[in-house]
């Protein structure tokens, strides 16, 4: 969800709040956020790819992840062409 939120290089309060609802606690959110921010774009994609076996190994799980990302894209009310294309890319990449 962080990856989706940063696609357009803007991280709004509504996007942050949506992610926090998934986090187990503020502490977990902060730890994940700090780690994410420290990564390069390549490392972020590599991390997503490395989680495939654990979180979205099946077609159904992958579709659920993509649906969640689309919802995250729509949180700020602007599902831009960049976000649409990134979602398409991730559909192929994963």
What does this structure look like?
Helix 6 (59-74) packs antiparallel against helix 7. The longest helix is centred in the C-terminal third of the chain and has 16 residues, at 59-74. It is globular and about 30 Å long. The chain has one domain. Helices cover 72% and strands 0% of the residues. With 94 residues, the protein is mainly alpha-helical. It contains seven helices and no strands.
What are the key terms here?
94 residues, mainly alpha, 0% strand
Which structural class do you get from the secondary structure elements? mainly alpha
The largest pleated sheet is described as: none
| CA-atom Rg in angstroms | 13 Å
Mean pLDDT: 92
Overall shape: it is globular
List unreliable stretches of 5+ residues. none
Q: How many runs of DSSP E, i.e. beta strands?
A: 0
**Straight-line N-to-C gap:** 15 Å
Number of domains: 1
What fraction strand? Answer: under 5%
Summarize the structure.
By secondary structure, the chain is mainly alpha-helical. The protein has one domain.
What's the helix and strand layout?
Elements: H1 2-5, H2 13-20, H3 26-38, H4 41-50, H5 52-55, H6 59-74, H7 81-93
Helix pairs in contact: 6-7
């Amino acid at each position: 969800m962080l990856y989706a939120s940063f696609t357009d290089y803007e991280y709004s309060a509504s996007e942050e709040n949506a992610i926090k609802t998934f986090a187990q606690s503020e502490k977990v959110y902060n730890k994940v956020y700090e780690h994410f921010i420290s990564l390069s774009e390549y490392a972020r994609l590599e991390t997503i790819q490395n989680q495939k076996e654990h979180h979205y190994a099946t077609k159904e799980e992958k579709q659920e992840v993509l649906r969640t990302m689309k919802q995250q894209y729509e949180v700020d009310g602007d599902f831009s062409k960049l976000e649409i294309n990134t979602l398409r890319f991730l559909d192929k990449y994963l």
